[in-house]
Amino acid sequence: MLKMKTTKLQTGKKGFLFSVNSSLRALAKAIALVVAISLLLSATPAAAHHPFGGETPSNFFEGLFSGFGHPIIGPDHLAFVVAVGLLAAIKERGILIPIAFVVAAVAGTGIHLMSLDLPIPEVIISASVLLFGVMLALKNSPSSMVMAALAAIAGLFHGYAYGEAVVGAEMTPLVGYLAGFTLIQLAIALSAFQVGKYAMKQVTEQPTLVLRFAGYTICGAGAAFLSSSILG
Q: What does the domain layout of the chain look like in residue ranges?
């Protein structure tokens, strides 16, 4: 009888240690993600970032690679896309969030190219990073449909900023540009989505906690971007 109790105790202890180790490994991965995102704090946000030094793309491939580069070299855009992907990982039907954002970003670029103005785009873009960082950090955030609607609104402003790089471009490089930034944003968001899902699977208790740590850092990045936008 005593031997059986000892065996059960040892088994329970091993299970507990395995759970703790899994949590620590997942937390370490989340911290690594947080550190990567925190590097964004050293960069300055801008309404438009130009992969080709401000030159308008002249052919399809220049447009494509300019589209690839724009969301990456713009730290405010990149932080938002990562936040969107991580939020999608913790929501039912969460994949609607990055899809809504990407589609709206294309529309936002069209708004810019039609010479229509959106108010204070730099401030709104920075505020969107802060808002989605807060949503990610919250234990109970709004539903997927609400987050998708917010992502779509943010997408209009992010896309509006993207449009600055192709003002005056011909149709062929414009198509390449739209394809480029759409594909790269989907790739980043889906990568963050997969990383988030994997990290949560490693933790048995409060699995979303590991992603909330990333949310806290995105909040910090958003606050820094917003301060820079307001204070100039």
A: 2-231
